[in-house]
Amino acid sequence: MSKRVVLAMSGGVDSSAAAVLLHRQGYEVIGLFMRSGETEKQACAVSPGGLLPVLDTPAHKQGCCSAEDAADARRVADQLGIPFHSLNFSDSFKRIKDYFADEYLAGRTPNPCVQCNNWLKFGKLWTFAQQVGADHIATGHYARIIKDETTGEYSLHCGSDPNKDQSYVLFGIERDLLSRILLPVGGYQKPDIRKFAEEAGLKVAQKKDSYEICFVPGDDYAGFLKNYRGVEGTEGDFVDTKGNVLGQHAGFEKFTVGQRKGLGIAFGEPRFVIRINPETRQVVLGQREDLAANRVHINGLNWLTDAPTNSFECSVKVRYQQASRACSVEFTSEDTAVITPHEPIIGVAPGQAAVFYDGDKVLGGGWIQSSANVGAGIAEVELS
User: Fold this and answer.
1) Average pLDDT of 131-152?
2) Is 337 part of a structural domain of the chain?
3) Which of 161, 166, 178, 292 has its CA 20 to 30 A from that of 50?
């Protein structure tokens, strides 16, 4: 079996530590830095197979990945003596940016990290790996892939560090790729990874983690949308759950379901964004209890195990940083389902992912279309 693996290197401590771990395990590691935009000058060289342009040197910051990040990744590769490529994936990043903008302008809460994994990190990465004759791809995600020695089946599981677990954002990858994916840091705690990187002499050992969406500097979503799409004319009314006008806002794209801070208007008591109506440009505000949902509709199902044929019980996570909750799932078609949590879940947002778990094993998931508190007089609203 080939020991060649292509590793997505971001210049951060996790992917850098992954490079060291794989190298020490005897893999022939090829580092790949994914650039989001064009550089001022491209090299004449092309990647093996001639299908993807190779960028000669890291350029100034454009879009997602900075020159500093690229330089950090290259230093780690040089230190380990492994080949390193910096490729231009501007077309793929444009797809992610378009998705992000489309979702926000439809009044939904996008999850670009999930789609980046689906389309880019575990899509284009695998394409490149095949071009260079690698049998595996790897990333620095905190999750684990476990092989059942009896059945030979591979499955995705939570990372060993519950504070860093990233299995939620991997639910949409292709099941057939599980046997090809290596996640070297998934079995470690984050402090241990930093210590390991420091002991290995990596300068990025104490580099801060980035929590921003990579192509939205400063988490300025509205600024990104204005620059990317020229968004204007989205101002409107704040209304309560009965439709009474409470005030005005400067643009519905500035808000997400569950938001409390940054409303730009004082009410004397906490108010939360309950719903966003892009057609009327209304942002509906209410109390925290108005966010409680006991029915969630999803579509776009993806399974990392054999798909259930009937309704089933499991745990579900509806946001990356929320704990999973016990629920029942009933199919309404091959690609849609209704989730009934055993207890209401606060802050279910259309556009986010709903991911199913059996213990620490990821079964699959889908995309939230609508939610409601049935029996509490809150109507279901589906945003498309």
Assistant:
1) 96
2) yes
3) 178
